[in-house]
Amino acid sequence: MDNPEKRVVDFIKEHHVLTLATCTENNPWCSNCFYIYLEDENCFVFTSDDKTKHVQHVLNNAHVAGSVVLETNTVGKIQGVQFNGTMERPGKELASIAKKSYLKRFPYAVLMKTSLWVLKPTFIKMTDNRLGFGKKLIWGKEK
Fold this sequence. Notes:
It contains three helices and eight strands. The chain has helices spanning 6-14, 53-60, 92-105; strands at 17-24, 27-34, 36-38, 43-48, 63-69, 79-88, 115-128, 136-140. β3 (36-38) and β4 form a beta hairpin. It starts with 5 loop residues before the first helix and ends with a strand.
C-alpha cells in the first residue's frame, strides 16, 4: 500500500503530540505521547513506560486509534488526523532507525527508562478545512 499523500504526511510531521486510544476488556483509555513520524516506514515512533495503562492494554490488544490536531478557534483553519492501526515494539532494524530519529528530536528521552514503540497506521483520515469546509483526505482501509 502506498504511503499517505504529502499533505497528510507534512501535517503529521509538523506536530509532535498524538492522542493514543487503547482498549482491552471493554476498558478504553486515552493517553498523550510525544512522537516522531518516519515517512519511509509510515509509522509513528514514541516511547512509553511498560507499566502504563496504554502499554498494558496493547499487550492484550495491539489495535489502537489516535489523533493529531491543530488547536484553533477558527473554523476555516481546522486541521487534524484520526487514525487506527497496530502498536508494537519495533524489530531490530526498525528499532535502530526509530531510536536514532526519536533521540534526535527528543534528546532528553535518553535519560528516561522507557521502551520504544511504533504505531503502524492502517487507516488515516485528515480533516482540512483550509481545502473547504469538512474536506477529508483518506488513506488506507477503515476496519
